[in-house]
Design a protein that fits this description.
Two copies of one chain form a homodimer. Chain A is an alpha/beta fold. In chain A, 43% of the residues lie in helices and 12% in strands. In chain A, strands 1, 2, 5, 6, 7, 8, 9 and 10 form an eight-stranded mixed β-sheet that branches. In chain A, strands 3-4 form a two-stranded antiparallel ribbon. Chains A, B: Keywords: ATP-binding, Cytoplasm, Ligase, Nucleotide-binding, RNA-binding, Transferase, tRNA processing, tRNA-binding.
Chain lengths: 377, 377
């Protein structure tokens, strides 16, 4: 029986820090293989992935991942708790023995925090602060621990989700090498830097500079098709101009009043960034608003059915294939290797729409006719 | 009391034939002035106007029109009967004494045809033919007259609409100079040519060649901002990709089944023209389908309120202003000289959306802050 360590990732894009984390996860757990569940073409903070999911999956397979599966979009473009819950559930379904993840402070006592009751709505009535800020204050008040770093927040949510699955996986935090998660500047004295700083360089097509930070680079050709929100700005503008406030209010997570802000500011803004700044308030974080704009762009409705979990294979190597054979008969959720018409009109409808939209910009079909990457056989 | 002749037009774009028609209309009726009601930025056959409404209104004012008003979009982008009805109603509201129009065969006995009953739905069950074809066959069967030219069909509808208004205006057909309405080639031996042929030249920016066919040309600068369906193709594609068949079926005039054709073929087509050819069937004419795609693009819903008539002033000269003073107290429909927030959220909502969409491509705001053109004072 092969033993596996699960990794929840976005790889936006893949870099040396990610390779380090895969290597350490395998080493610390002594697992036979690493199973990666990765966001598709739209990522958790409400942005299109800088490189498409196939390119990112291939980068991971080249650097230690043995199987890469896609986190469904209805689970991926979500706040940390929902993102974590579905990713943990799917890895649990796949029988992973361990879940390993980066953390800014792996010595935090996540285990003691996972049973904390936070959900009294009275705790969230201060409208001058964002929801994540209020959560952090509450944890500090109740436990004295400070959880204010993005990976720590995710980690806490992994513990909670895993507890809800009877602690099916053993959780293995690994200290992140660089702590400035969103630093825009490359750190030239290190082989590690933030994904944000690499994205900036990709946008400017400075491929030479970033090769220092990305292991086993793909061809320039594959790194060429960079996608950003700017590519979708004319479509978003069109969508908001042609949709009245009543119809906008039917979009998923369109809270009371936000539809009026969108309608009001869309005619003033000349770029996505400008629009985002115009609609920003203290109450809503940038990721919250960016996700809302993804929902709007995709026409994702309040009453769309909730996320259905499934195992969508993006790629594997020999070890990954053996593991898949070992576990597939025990799966209680669908296994998807190829998107067909039926799937595209049912479980995967929003994923296919999201992929088609991304593919139009990226100029490559993302789902139909695509088969899993078979790496290094 | 000033006497006026009404003209229903699109001027897409204005050319020598249009000037001839205005001159002849004034001459034959001996009216003091010509009042033109013109489609705005989207025209009857379901296309964006090649030049925006302000440019086209100015061309008309330079060439004999004394007042130009806009036919509301909900009346303009419609089959001939609805287009004619609202245009005739608004000119009647404005107290026009005459209605003059071009006709391929002005000697047809339109008056005898206007009471013909055509609306037995049993007459329209041959799905191998388009609706206009069936109408033409029916008229021929009942009266022996052949009405198969676009301006004659409009003319018949003017007679019917005018009859329904107790023949308030005297109708004055004028023989059209050139008969090949949709000819793509310029006719170099004449100063008259089709609007289609001029559009082709405008798209290729051959301004020199077309100056022969356009009286009192505007500056090259004004003729530079040419708009075609191709400009909206990425938005239409986005719209159809992100809208499911149930939601598409709520679009105005989306007959049973057409939504499936749109969804099916949108992923195959690489251009608007290709898409239009893919969805074409014998039952539906190109204009019918193009109008449907305008409705889809504008998110114009089945249950949107019907067209409200109003008088939207695009421009006038001194005579036009005097006439407006003479008639405005008798208007039973709103007079709109400037679009404000209230109008843009109510009567003019779809017009403003349509203008904004057009203006985004054309790079000039079409409604807010615009005031009527005051010509040659």
């Amino acid at each position: 029986m092969l033993k596996s360590v699960g990794i929840i990732a976005e790889y936006n894009p893949f870099h040396n820090g990610h390779k380090y984390q895969i290597d350490m996860a395998k080493k610390q757990t002594n697992a036979d293989l690493a199973v990666v569940i990765m966001s598709g073409n739209w990522v958790q903070r409400g942005q299109p992935a800088i490189l498409d999911k196939w390119t990112r999956a291939q980068m991971a397979l080249k650097n230690g991942a043995d199987m890469v599966i896609e986190l469904p979009i209805k689970s991926a473009v979500q706040p940390a708790d929902i993102f974590a819950k579905h990713a943990v559930n799917i890895l649990t379904e796949l029988g992973c023995n361990y879940l390993s993840f980066g953390s800014e402070n792996p010595n935090l006592d996540f285990d003691s925090l996972k049973d904390l009751k936070l959900d009294d709505s009275n705790n969230f009535k201060d409208y001058s602060k964002s929801y994540p800020e209020l959560i952090q204050e509450l944890i500090k008040k109740k436990t004295g621990q400070v959880i204010d770093q993005p990976n720590d927040i995710l980690a806490l949510n992994y513990y909670i989700a895993n507890r809800n699955n009877n602690n099916a996986m053993q959780l293995v935090p690994i200290k992140r090498i660089e702590s400035q998660h969103h630093a825009k500047e490359l750190n030239e004295n290190s082989q590690y830097t933030s994904a944000s700083s690499i994205r900036s360089k990709l946008i400017n097509n400075d491929l030479g500079e970033i090769s220092h930070y990305i292991p086993n680079m793909l061809s320039d050709n594959q790194l060429d098709n960079v996608v950003t929100w700017d590519d979708f700005w004319p479509l978003l503008k069109y969508k908001i101009i042609t949709t009245d406030v009543d119809e906008l209010s039917q979009i998923y997570q369109m809270s009371e009043g936000l539809q009026y802000r969108l309608k009001k500011y869309i005619v003033q803004a000349d770029s996505f960034e400008e629009f985002l700044d115009l609609i920003k308030t203290k109450r809503y974080t940038y990721p919250r608003l960016q996700r809302l704009l993804v929902y709007t762009l995709l026409n994702w409705k309040q009453n769309d059915s909730a996320s259905k979990e499934y195992v969508r294979i993006l790629g594997f190597n020999k070890l990954g294939r053996s593991y898949l054979k070992q576990v597939k008969d025990n799966l209680s959720i669908p296994l998807v290797a190829k998107v067909n018409k039926n799937l595209s009109e049912n479980e995967l409808e929003l994923d296919v729409t999201a992929g088609r939209l991304y593919g139009n910009v990226h100029s490559q079909e993302q789902d139909f006719g695509k088969v899993p990457i078979i790496y290094n056989f």
